[in-house]
Amino acid sequence: MDSFTQIVLGIATAELCAGEKLQRKTILYGAILGTIPDLDVLFGQFLNPVDGVAIHRGLSHSLLFFGLLSPILGWFISKIEQEKINFRSATVLVFWCLFTHVLLDMFTSWGTQIFWPLPDRIALKTIFVIDPLYTLPLLICLIIGLRKPTFALRKKYVLRGIYISSFYLLVTCSLKLYALQQFKNALQEQHISYSDLIVKPTAFNCILWNANVATKEAYLLGDYSLFDSQSITFERYEKNNTLSKQLSGNPDFETLKKVSEGWFIVTKKDNDYYFNDLRFGLLTKDPKQPQFAFSYVFKDENGKPKAQEVPKQKRDGKALMQGILNRIKGN
Question: What is the pTM of this model?
């Protein structure tokens, strides 16, 4: 999830774990601890663009990392606040602030390598990385709670915010299962054989859902709004295996291939190869000249093709949101 949401969740968690002992200092500790897992983005700035993407939500989002870091930071906090909180309680505080960060990230499309060094990412794909319907109830209850004079009252309101936001997560899980069944029904009705299917929400909402369908020769992309009245249609994008073979063995290509979990196509334009990650949708829906939300172009550097992320323009985001707002109303 976005950094602001993780800070809010971190403060709420810190308040529940140590609000009686640390009082208003839970705001500081919760904000810091709720941000720590995402510091891998800063480390990624010192790596090439592909390796920076590959490490995101890896080690820093793992149980191994939390297990090692919690007692260390717990010791520091217990020394700083030695008259207020002991080592054990401070360690529990750190662990839960880190762990809830990752639990929430697991509901997004990118997911987390919570069992790092194992390569698999846990991604439930039920919520977009920014979703006001999750964040606002938690934020409002947290603000109201922190204004109360006693821990008992603060805890009451913070728990209320956690319950509301957590209930919303459960709602998104139910909506995803419903959307998944609609896509399966459409594929069956259209007699489409497929080997894999993933469904995820579009930006900022849980009403409009996207599907990626893997067939033998191509990927099919479709969308479904809960307000739809017509059948789901799919757009076909060839796998272009010949182009993929031409990049085979290139370190950046092999890394991106792992990061995308196999959901990609390679295209070629003006003698440049483009690696397009299918999991995050399209900016434009022209099958002849598709523009994907996450795309990398291979440029020659010292005689070797190196991947560079294709920059996105403000108008791309504006067009994407306009398309979502129009499509969310139903077909």
Answer: 0.90
CA distance between the termini of the chain: 29
Q: How far apart are CA 73 and CA 83, in angstroms?
A: 17
Angle, CA 63 vertex, CA 62 and CA 69 arms, to 5°? 95
Label residue 285 by pLDDT band (50, 70, 90): low
| Alpha helices (H) along the chain | 3-22, 26-35, 40-44, 49-55, 63-80, 87-105, 132-146, 151-189, 241-247, 251-259, 314-327
- pLDDT, tens digit, 9 for 90 and up, residues 18-50: 999 999 999 999 999 999 999 998 887 888 878
Return d(Cα 178, Cα 238) in angstroms, integer.
Answer: 28
Residue in the structure block whose two tokens are 């209320």 = 160
On the CB side of 330, how many CA atoms lie within 13 Å of its CA? 5
User: By three-state DSSP, how is residue 245 classified?
Assistant: helix
Q: Please say whether the beta carbons of 220 and 234 come within 8 A.
A: yes
20, 44 Cβ separation under 8 angstroms: no
* CA separation for the pair 168, 139 (Å, rounded): 14
Q: Cα separation of 49 and 251, whole Å?
A: 12
Pull the structure tokens for residue 236.
Answer: 């076909």
How far is residue 215's CA from residue 59's CA, in Å, rounded to a whole number?
Answer: 33
Contacts of 144 (CB under 8 A, 6+ apart): 157
Assess contact for 280 and 296: CB atoms under 8 A.
no
Q: Is 101 exposed, middle or buried, given 0-12, 13-18 or 19+ CB atoms closer than 10 A?
A: buried
How many angstroms from the chain centroid is the CA of residue 19?
A: 29
Sign of CA dihedral 101, 107, 112, 114: positive
